[in-house]
Write a structure and sequence with these properties.
Number of helices: 15
Largest sheet: 5 strands, mixed
Oligomer: single chain
Strand content: 15-25%
Mean pLDDT: 77
Distance between the termini: 39 Å
Low-confidence stretches: 32-47, 379-388
Number of strands: 12
Strand order of the largest sheet: 1-2-3-4-5
Radius of gyration: 28 Å
Helix content: 40-55%
Length: about 425
């Protein structure tokens, strides 16, 4: 028995065990989370492009879902109602009237994906109406993005006499966030999409093919999770946290791996890098590695840890909870300080003629940061918890590393490493 374990630690350990072992509520929650869903299996539940594909298919009257233009009309009416609630006048500023939409036939509707970078563009020539949807699942509004789309549409479909189209712009987010840079986009939410699709399909299900109905239900399940519409799921989460708060807090603080060994191997395979640490079960605070072509040149005989090379790169996960990771090129500690000083001098000599020039301090004996960069683990600066899922993280880190090795600082160190001749190299 370890006599150094404090009573507080013992209490936390017991709380975690009570939470994890034979917890029927936890097992039920896991069954809800892990319910089979092909959209999840294909990895499509977290990507805007996949959601946009499904939504474009749903609103297309010619799509093989048996709903005709019903869903398009209902979603368009929902957007117009949301517009009225947010101060957009009906039949004002180029918007169609609600009565006009109800009485229209949109069987000629054409739905386009990624037209001029617009997520969803739908146009009905017979009704002189077009709909632009900017769909956001994880990303935030990009600077200048929405005004650019308005300008594109106005330029191609100008408000000239006899050619004028009613133009509806919708900003679709999980919670109906208002856009910051455009007063033409009506805020709309995936929760509203969920309610419209669910109610429409329930009414028409007897006229739909069973496979189509099942697919739409699977999509609705994804929206339930994204918008927390599943009351049973939410209630279970609230109850479990209330009854096991200490255990859950401890798990979140201590038990969450940043990257698995499989993730690390994927990273190395796609970057031609290697590490003495790649067989770790998980990575938490930092991860050190080197380019594969340094493997027989840079020893790993640092006196301050068997996973640190004399010269190495490092991913630092200290800011991980803020969706950030730091990637650094480091000169570590050497057992032979004269060798370390000689190596830094060689780097400084090469750096003096590099572009841009840089220099390293020679007095420090522990480590030098040659260059570093902050890696954002969220595309479009999105506040998205899913952005920390390992597959997405590895892809972002892989891209960051490939960009990093193009820096002049790395190129200088790379050249010095390959020509330096370290003691104990290749061992």
């Amino acid at each position: 028995m370890n006599n150094h374990i404090t009573p507080e630690t013992q209490t936390k350990e017991k709380a975690v065990l009570d939470f994890c072992v034979n917890n029927k509520d936890l097992n039920k929650l896991e069954s809800l989370i892990n319910a089979f869903n092909p959209i999840k299996v294909l990895g499509a539940s977290n990507y805007e492009i996949r959601h946009s594909n499904v939504l474009a298919w749903l609103i297309g009257p010619k799509s093989h879902h048996g709903l005709g233009d019903t869903l398009f009309k209902n979603i368009l009416l929902g957007i117009l109602r949301s517009g009225a609630e947010n101060g957009f006048p009906s039949n004002g500023d180029g918007l169609p009237s609600i009565e006009g939409v109800i009485n229209s036939d949109f069987s000629d509707l054409q739905v386009r994906r990624e037209w001029r970078d617009i997520d969803i563009f739908a146009i009905s020539p017979s009704n002189r109406l077009l709909l632009v949807i900017e769909n956001k699942i994880s990303a935030n509004e990009s600077k200048g993005q929405l005004p650019k789309y308005v300008d594109i549409v106005k330029k191609i479909y100008p408000d000239t006499e006899g050619e004028k189209y009613n133009k509806v712009f919708a900003f679709l987010t999980l919670d109906g966030t208002e856009p910051k840079e455009s007063d033409r986009f009506i805020p709309f939410s995936h929760e509203q999409i969920y309610e419209i699709v669910r109610s429409t399909v329930d009414i028409r299900k007897d006229y739909m093919h069973a496979k189509v109905y099942d697919f739409i239900q699977q999509y609705l399940q994804i929206l339930e999770e994204k918008t927390m519409r599943n009351d049973e799921f939410v209630s279970l989460c609230e109850m479990l946290y209330k009854e096991h708060k200490d255990a859950i807090d401890a798990i979140l603080k201590h038990g969450k791996p940043w990257l698995s060994s499989e993730d690390i191997k994927y990273f190395h395979n796609n970057t031609d890098t290697t590490s003495k640490s790649m067989d770790r079960a998980k990575v938490k605070k930092y991860y050190t590695f080197i380019p594969a072509d340094w493997n027989d040149k840079v020893p790993d005989n640092s006196p301050y840890g068997d996973d640190k090379y004399l010269v190495y790169l490092k991913f630092d996960f200290e800011k991980y909870e803020n969706h950030k990771v730091t990637l650094s090129l480091m000169i570590g500690s050497f057992r032979d300080q004269e060798e370390r000083l000689k190596f830094i001098q060689k780097v400084n000599e090469a750096a003096a003629v590099a572009s841009p020039k840089f220099s390293l301090k020679t007095e420090t004996k522990m480590s030098n940061t040659v260059s570093s960069t902050t890696v954002l683990l969220k595309e479009g600066k999105a506040e998205d918890s899913d952005s920390k899922k390992s597959a997405a993280v590895v892809d972002i880190l892989t891209k960051a590393y490939k960009n990093f090795v193009g820096r002049s600082e790395f190129e200088v160190v790379d050249k010095v490493v390959k020509g330096f001749g370290f003691k104990d190299a290749g061992k």
